[in-house]
């Protein structure tokens, strides 16, 4: 039986919870997040105000989707490589979804994780 150490934790699944103030990242099986960092506010400046009764505004509330994607790529790269310091290719990643965050935001994060980080 292998001892629990850094090498065995690297094989675990990664959990990412992007909040409006703080982002938490860690591994499944740990009691606490490995890192808690301030969420870059620039990724939330891409949303414009919308009225909840307008059912189509949920999909059109992002002003510049390309800029949002670029800012999220920078944020996730710093988060994964600088804070967590692990290769993420081929690992399972669990993204905690907040129901108050726009669906376009979650789909953009998932798209970046699939295409750039190959998870």
How would you sum up this structure, described in words?
This protein has 119 residues and is an alpha+beta fold. It has a single domain, classed as Nucleotidyltransferase, domain 5. Helix content is 35%, strand content 16%. It has a four-stranded mixed beta sheet, with helices on one face. β1 (14-18) and β2 form a beta hairpin. Mean pLDDT is 76; it is low at 1-10 and 53-59.
Q: How do the SSEs run, as a string of H and E?
A: HEEEHHEH
Mean pLDDT across every amino acid position = 76
- Our estimate of the beta-strand percent is 15-25%
The coarse overall form would be: globular
Level-2 CATH architecture: 2-Layer Sandwich
From the N-terminal CA to the C-terminal CA, the straight-line distance is 28 Å
Task: Please describe the topology of this protein.
Blueprint: H1 6-10, E1 14-18, E2 22-27, E3 35-38, H2 57-60, H3 65-84, E4 93-96, H4 103-115
Parallel strand pairs: 1-4
Antiparallel strand pairs: 1-2, 2-3
Helix pairs in contact: 3-4
